[in-house]
Every structure is written in C-alpha cells, then in structure tokens.
Amino acid sequence: MGNYSLVVLDFETTGLSPYGGDRIIEVGAVLVSGNRIADSFQSLMNPGMRVSSFIEEYTGITNQMLESAPPAAEVMGRLADFMGPHHLVAHNASFDSRFLDSELQRVSLSRQQEFACSMLLSRRLHPDAQSHSLEKLIKHKNLTTSGVSHRALADAEMTAHLWISMVNDLKCDFNLKEVPFELMQQLSKVSKNAARDLLMKTAADQDEDSPKKVVDEFIAVGMFGNKLRLLSLAPDGSYRFLDGSVNLQNFLHIDTPETRAFQQSIEELEDLINSRTTKENDFQAFFERNPNFILNDEYKKAHPHLILSRESDGKELIPDFVLEPIAANGVSDILELKLANTPAYVLKKNRPRFSAAVFEACAQLREYSAFFDDEVNRESIYQKYSILSYKPKMFVIIGRRGNVSPIEIRRIHSDIPGLCLRTYDDIVEMMKNRLSSRLRGQ
Hints:
Blueprint: E1 5-13, E2 24-33, E3 36-44, H1 53-59, H2 63-67, H3 72-83, E4 87-90, H4 93-106, E5 115-117, H5 118-125, H6 134-140, H7 152-174, H8 181-189, H9 192-206, E6 218-224, E7 227-233, E8 239-241, H10 257-274, H11 280-289, E9 299-304, E10 308-309, E11 316-317, E12 321-325, E13 333-337, E14 345-346, E15 353-354, H12 356-371, H13 375-385, E16 394-397, H14 406-413, E17 419-422, H15 424-439
Parallel strand pairs: 1-4, 4-5, 13-16, 16-17
Antiparallel strand pairs: 1-2, 2-3, 6-7, 7-8, 9-12, 10-11, 12-13, 14-15
Helix pairs in contact: 5-8, 6-7, 10-15
C-alpha cells in the first residue's frame, strides 16, 4: 500500500436501516498495516431489542447469545479505540457507515475518517466478475477464506484480503510504487473508462525518470467589462486574447469539482443499469448516496427504508423511500425501486400495457398508501419520524424506455392514473440535462 494503515469494518445488524430503528448486533474489525492483517477486534453487541427469526437463521446469532452480550456503549467505545485515526474500509461502505455513525451518535461519539468502498472499487478493477458480492469476489480471485460468512469478523477478514489483493494487482498491472488510500477512494468514484486513465497518470507521476513537461503557457478565462474572454497566459504574467473580439461565454463550460462528481455519479448509474449482476440493493445504495437523482423542486429529503408498523396487527412495511416535501404544510409521498432489466411495458400489437412487474409494484405502493389511511398509523409515524403522509403519490423507477413512442407511453400510463412511473433511462436523461445546464452556468 502506502505509508498508512486502515481498519476494515463489517457489521451484522437487525435489519437494513438505522433510520428505521435497526441496530448493530455484531462488530468485526481488522487492522491492515504494511499490506497485511496486523490485528483484529470482534464482539457481539446487545441491541436492546429482539432480532427476527430470519436474522437468527441468516447470521447464526440468536437472541439468547445477544442477551449476555455487552451493551452498545461498551462495544462502540472499544471499537472507537480500535479504529483510532486509521482510514476505514467496508464492502458496501454506504451501509456500514450509516450504522457506524448511528451507533456512535447514540453514545455521544463521532468519526472523522472517510470510508473507502471495496465493492465500488471492485466494479472498476474487476468489471469481468460475475457478481461483486463479497463471497463471489473472493471466489473470482481465488482468495482463501475461513469458510464462514455472514459473521462480522469473518467478513471483515475477507474484505481485508480482497483489499490487499486489489492493491497488489494495481502495483503489478500499472507498475505503481505505492497505492495511496486517496487513490483507492478516487477509483471507486470515477467511471470505468476514467479509472485506467487515472491509474496511468498516477504511474507517470510516480515515475521519477519520466520526462517533466515544460509549460510554456496556460489557457485562462478573464472577465473584461461584462464579457468573458479566452486568454493565453504566459509564465511571466503577460497574456494575449485567443478569441479576438468575440464574446465566448456561450461556448464556455463551467467545470467545478461538484460538476465532475455529478458526472461521475451519472456514469456510475449507467454502469449499474447496464450490468447484468446489479441487484435492487445496489440501486438502493446508489440513490441513498445520490438522493438528488430522485428529488425535484417539490421534495427536500428522501428517507430510505422507514419502518411502517401497523398498530392493528404489528405487520411491518418498508418502502424503499419516503419523499419529504419542502412545503411545511405538505405531505410525504412514496417511491419504490425495481430492477433496470425488468420490463416496464408489454408491447402487444393489439394493446400495449404495463408489465406484470409494474402492477406488482403498484400493489406494494397501494398497501403503503392504505397504511396512512389509518389515523393511528399516521400519528405513530409522525411521532417517530416527524413525517406526515396521507393518500401519498405513488412513484416507481423500473426498467428501460426502449422504443416505446410518447403516444404509447401516454396511453399505457392512463391505465393507472395515480402512478408516476419513470424508467432508468428517464432518470439518466434528466440528470444529463441538469448537468448540461450546470456546465453552461444556468
């Protein structure tokens, strides 16, 4: 690696979202230093609540085991000491970072370090892998494991071995002298096409024997009066106009770190859409990291995986997102995600229509809507999340647009008047239009 150490984290939890009240039940952490595992930490943690039979079967961690486990304050304090100032890594870091921050906040602690995500990194470095789940990547790279999965320490150790292997691959394939943590973070955020360029540039920068470029001039933009002018700027400070007397502001792009990050996010979404191995959880994680992709001028926040507990029978409903409005007197709406490779439309000659998957999503959304018909349920959710909803609008993102004409789409959508359907192509197109406006300074 470089002259740094890092801690790889993995958590077993009661569910998918700390925002919905889910808790950590097991902590696994591995210290990687000098490109090898140097230390480890593991502990069960009493969440103060019972776990479901599914979680017991999935992890092998029973309620009886958790009853005698140390409390959260003790475990998180010890974990914070173990993490120290080290960089942090996790496989699907958006998941683990949310739980870590939630549990630390409960005991009045916080972290300063940033995460790197080994799953996003693997998508850039191993696009040929059949799947980017931890177990499948370990098999893809023929790495040794303990044979245990869905336990925190075992998964943290597997992630550490995967990280070390990817670092070694980069050193070998690109002749890198060292692989800084910041480089690994950058690689996880750029597009697949840009990843190789970044690595080649890093290798050239590290090569002491590579010829140094002598810069004779810089291209700059200056404001003269009320006009933007394109300049050639010499090292001695002198300059000349490159645009004559023409105002070039309509041809100039405003490129900032924010617009570059936005463009990279669009490319990441396109990668997810075009990959045959992408799961709904991958889209969920993406939109949680990039909520602006599903928000518009009407909404200020997208709440992921809120738990709607029916007071009548205790049944729990978990919509993908609850959209909170900007207006103080507004009510929240609901968004459901489906896969990009799931058809949205059935194009029969006699009558085009929605696919069965759309009707299934609509049934889910109607069940969520019915939940808020009950005043007791509405009050319960308002007290728990400060969110008000009644007769929510129903949104679903599913499938690709294909070759469906606008007339056919309008005709199909009239079958379910209360449903607002967007394909993943629609989302990408809207975001590209938004990016184009930003680059033009609009």
